[in-house]
Every structure is written in C-alpha cells, then in structure tokens.
C-alpha cells in the first residue's frame, strides 16, 4: 500500500497494459495507410477525400450513429426518470437489462423477424386487411435510410443508458424534488434544477460510448444494412478483403481517420467535463 501511495503512476499500469493491443493495431493501421512504394505518403487519405463512395458512407455513418445515440439517450432517460422507483426492485430491473445479455447481431435478427417485409408485423397487417400483401409493407430493414440499423441500436442501447443513469437517480434525495415543487416549480423545473446537474456528465460519457460503438461496429450494418450507402465499418471491411491490394491502404486510412475523430471528440468532451468539475469545486456555475 505504501508503494502505491508513493508511486500513484503504478496504478495506471493495468490500464496501459490493456491498451497495448488496440494501440498496436492503431499504430499498424497508421503505418500501413501512410507507406507507399516510395516511402511515406498521404495518397490514401487524398483518395478518401476524393471518393464519393467514402464521403457518402461517412455522412451516412455519422448521421445514423448520432440519431441512434440521441434517441437511445432520450428513451433511456425517460424510462429511468419515470420508473426509477420501480427499478429499485430486482425483477423489473433485471427484465429491463435482459437485452444486454444478447449480442447485437441477435437483436439484428430479431428486427428482421419483426420488421422485414415478410416479418411478423407484415403478416399481421395482411391478416388484418390493412395491406393487400407483404410487398406493401414499408421497407424498414436493408433500407437506404438505415431504419433497421437505428431500430436495432436503439433497442439494444436503451438498457445500457438505464444502467448508467439508474445509480445517479437512486442517489438523488426525494427532498430535492419536494423543495422545487414547494417553490412552485413544475416537472421541467425539477428536471432542470435537480436532474440535469446530476446526470449531465453521465449523459455525455454515455453518449461518447454509444456513439463510438455504433460508428465503428460491423455486425449489425452488415446484417441489415444496404450496399449503398454503407456504414464506414462495412466499407472498410470490403476494402480490406477485396481482391485488390490497392484497396487495403484505403481500409486502414478510413479506420485510422475514424479512430482519430473519435479520440478528438472524446478529448473535447473530457475537457468540457473537467472544466465543469473544476468550476463546481470552486463554487462557480
């Protein structure tokens, strides 16, 4: 224990050890994307910026990931705030967290079984006479708008949002809400003055976790996505395993760019939260 007190950096050793593999992978990706026949080159990155396919893919990926993350946060926040007293019981809490046990591709298959043109809802609508045949059912999977991907990620990530927010709501005293209500505040005032200061940092951290995952995940977009526009992870996979060796540097360059983008946004988020904490410690808003 004395060793740890005198050398706090030792406590970082397990984290650094865990980061060896991903950092090694990132270093190899950077090396492969910047090495050409004549040595160092940025030709792969220039090709990405000139590729309409990549630009369409990155815009589609950012839009889909952002919408899925925001909707998952909103739904999870509403559920946690509305039913936090029920979640104190083991059965409702475990029932809500049950989807976290299953991998994302399992929920992708569930979305196909329910929302595809030949799925459960389509068959029900035909039986009820709402549509003539299953071909009239809206295309919600393998569609260019990414609805199937959105449904899968929202369904899968809402329990994670509740998992992150529930301990925070459990620690907020009920007397805070009673005080705001006594002073004439409505539910919005309660949320703004009581909830938001407590959950802001957790929401931002959860946003970056979900956004980074949905932006780079492969299995769900490959399962229920379209050929164009595709998520950047699917495009990178196709470039990496294509028959042309010339496409491999593009795959490394694409994923390196995404990694750097996520790292930069996470750093900015950390700086914002750290600034808020410092201001709070100094007694300033």
From TrEMBL:
UniProt domain ABC transmembrane type-1: residue ranges: 54-273
Segment forming the signal sequence: none
Coiled-coil residue windows: none
InterPro entries per record: MetI-like, MetI-like_sf, Sugar_ABC_transporter
Membrane topology, as annotated: Multi-pass membrane protein
A Pfam entry, by short name: BPD_transp_1
UniProt name for this protein: ABC transporter permease
Lineage: Bacteria, Bacillati, Bacillota, Bacilli, Bacillales
């Amino acid at each position: 224990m004395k060793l740890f007190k005198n050398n706090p950096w030792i406590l970082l050793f397990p984290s650094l050890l865990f980061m060896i593999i991903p950092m090694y992978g990132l270093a190899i990706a950077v090396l492969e994307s910047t090495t050409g026949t004549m040595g160092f080159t940025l030709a792969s990155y220039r090709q990405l910026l000139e590729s309409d396919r990549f630009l369409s893919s990155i815009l589609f990926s950012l839009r889909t990931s952002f919408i899925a993350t925001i909707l998952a946060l909103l739904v999870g926040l509403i559920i946690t705030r509305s039913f936090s007293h029920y979640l104190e019981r083991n059965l409702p809490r475990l029932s809500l967290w049950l989807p976290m046990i299953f991998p994302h591709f399992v929920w992708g298959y569930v979305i196909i079984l329910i929302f595809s043109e030949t799925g459960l809802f389509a068959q029900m609508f035909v039986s009820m006479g709402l549509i003539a045949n299953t071909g009239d059912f809206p295309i919600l999977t393998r569609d260019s708008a990414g609805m199937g991907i959105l449904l899968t990620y929202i369904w899968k990530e809402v329990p994670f949002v509740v998992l992150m927010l529930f301990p925070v709501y459990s620690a907020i005293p009920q007397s805070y809400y009673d005080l705001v209500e006594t002073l004439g505040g409505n539910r919005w005032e309660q949320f703004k003055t009581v909830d938001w200061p407590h959950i802001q940092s957790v929401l931002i951290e959860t946003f970056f976790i979900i956004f980074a995952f949905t932006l780079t995940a492969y299995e769900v977009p490959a399962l229920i996505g379209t050929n164009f526009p595709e998520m950047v992870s699917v495009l990178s996979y196709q470039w990496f395993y294509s028959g042309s060796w010339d496409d491999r540097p593009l795959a490394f360059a694409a994923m390196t760019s995404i990694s750097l983008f996520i790292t930069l946004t996470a750093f900015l988020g950390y700086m914002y939260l750290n600034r808020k904490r410092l201001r709070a410690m100094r007694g300033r808003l």
